[in-house]
Amino acid sequence: MKKHYQILVIGGGTGGIMTAAQLMKKNKKLDIGLVEPADTHYYQPAWTLVGAGTYDYEKTARPMASLIPKGVDWVKDYATALKPEKNVVSTKSSGDISYDYLVLSPGLVNDTSLIEGLTEAIDKGVVCSNYTDPEHTWKVLQNFKGGNALFTQPSTPIKCGGAPQKIAYLAADYFRKKGILKDSNVIFATPGTVIFGVQQIKETLLKVIDRYGMHFRPYYAPFKIDAENQIAYFKYTAPADKRVPIQEGNKIGETIDEKDVISIPFDMLHLAPPQTAPKFVKDSVLVNEAGWVEVDHHSLQHVAFANVFSLGDVTALPTAKTGAAIRKQVPIVVDNLLSLIKQEAVKNHSYNGYSSCPLVTGYGKMVLAEFDYKNNFTPDPKLKQMLIFDSSKEHWRLWILKKYMLPYLYWNKMMKGKNV
Ligand SMILES: Cc1cc2nc3c(=O)[nH]c(=O)nc-3n(C[C@H](O)[C@H](O)[C@H](O)COP(=O)(O)OP(=O)(O)OC[C@H]3O[C@@H](n4cnc5c(N)ncnc54)[C@H](O)[C@@H]3O)c2cc1C
Which residues does the annotation mark as catalytic? Predict the structure, then answer.
């Protein structure tokens, strides 16, 4: 077993595989090790569709071995500690591995302990999450007979910030088709202040919410789930000028107490669990106060250790954590790494915070939010070739993109190191 690599990549998810594959495409002689414990790699974006019963879970999984690029050494192990001052990563069973350059992309972890009662409740009975078991979500939707269908998300950053509301729209559409929407209160409660940060997308989504008769509740920060009595508790964080009074005896059964604690009874609950960087990352010197890896926002080079790069969900980049963002981050990391190897300065500072969120708003309908650090709407000009001229509006062609084209591009282009 080798104890040193020129480039050590941590994580065989979207960011790790794509980076290793692009590096090998540029130079087959590179000496790359990739530390990844899992046997299976998942295409997580399709879990939203799995949860709505319109995509096969098995199709979201592929053996990790089939994705590790040829010529890259798979170190099938967990990274357990990062020691950048010594250029070393410790692992669970392969000991210490040293490197010349490090690429960190181990994603993030769900931490259900941050919401009281969630660890016991999640993925059981009427409590579900596309983040942990999308097949259970689909069972819960099918079993729902009317009443309160509650959708929420935590106060921590999460991957694909739009996913908690996508499943709410799909559920509302499913209840409509089943004829039970009129007997249901579909509630989307979020700690966020708006439905979406990009103005054009926000306008469309507010119309979608109206169409389904959904109840949108901003400034709701969930902190406790009582699964036995089927009640979710939120801290109401709205500033004085944004507060909306809660009427006694309202049809949702929502209450508020003198400490601004809101309770909502539910007949089903979907939520994104709280999410953090993995422990070995949080415990390292590479993170900011919130525990995310601190890299330059434009070059993705670590702010203190020049031979360390990081991308994907684990970073502290102030943009949405998505695979789409990684698609734009990888070529920059690859460029800059190759410059460093040639003893040149890091030249590529072009990452502008691009991220994208395919917001499915019903079966056969989607809006594509593409944006940058400043929340400017930045639609891909290539969409015109698909006859999509305004991706901020619902379109069936965008649904085709989500359900068929993006998975194809992921497995056949992104994972193979081809630029898309
Ligand atoms: C429900 C849902 C819907 C989503 N929808 C979309 C969408 O529509 N569009 C979109 O672009 N993105 C979407 N995403 C987000 C997207 O999947 C992630 O942003 C992306 O996969 C992040 O890539 P990553 O490489 O940072 O992490 P991941 O792909 O999660 O990979 C991390 C890898 O690191 C490995 N790892 C973890 N710990 C260690 C360790 N100690 N040592 C070594 N390896 C380790 C893991 O096993 C894993 O293989 C969605 C995600 C979810 C859950």
Answer: 160, 357
Find the residues whose C-beta lies inside 6 A of ligand 1.
10-16, 35-38, 44-45, 47-48, 78-79, 105-107, 130-131, 159-160, 163, 278, 280, 312-314, 321-324, 326, 358
What pLDDT shows up at residue 420? Answer: 81
Which residue numbers in the chain have pLDDT < 50? none
pTM over 0.70: yes
Q: Report the C-alpha gap between 369 and 250 in whole angstroms.
A: 34
376 Cα–ligand 1 center, Å = 25
pLDDT given at position 25: 97
β pairing state of 261-265 and 127-128: unpaired
| Per-residue model confidence (pLDDT) at position 283 | 98
DSSP string, 216-258: EETTEEEEEEETTTTEEEEEE---GGG--PPPTT-TT--EE-T
Residue-level pLDDT at 240:
96
pLDDT at 222: 98
Report DSSP letters for 374-392, one per residue: T--B---GGGGGGT-S-TT
Beta partners for residue 235, in sequence order: 221, 261
Element (H, E) at 330: helix 323-341
The pLDDT value recorded for residue 162 is 97
β-strand pairing of 61-63 with 40-42: antiparallel
Domains and CATH numbers, the chain: 4-108+277-351 (3.50.50.60), 110-274 (3.50.50.60)
42 CA: nearest ligand 1 atom: 29
Q: Which of 284, 281, 311, 279 is nearest to 295 (CA)?
A: 311
- Among 105, 21, 12, 14, CA closest to 71: 21
Crossing angle of helices 14-26/323-341, nearest 10°? Answer: 40
pLDDT of residue 406: 97
- The residue whose CB lies within 8 Å of the most ligand 1 atoms, and thus the one to mutate among 99, 159, 330, is 159
C-alpha of residue 44 to centroid of ligand 1, in Å: 7
Query: What distance in Å separates the CA atoms of residue 367 and residue 55, rounded to the nearest whole number?
Result: 19
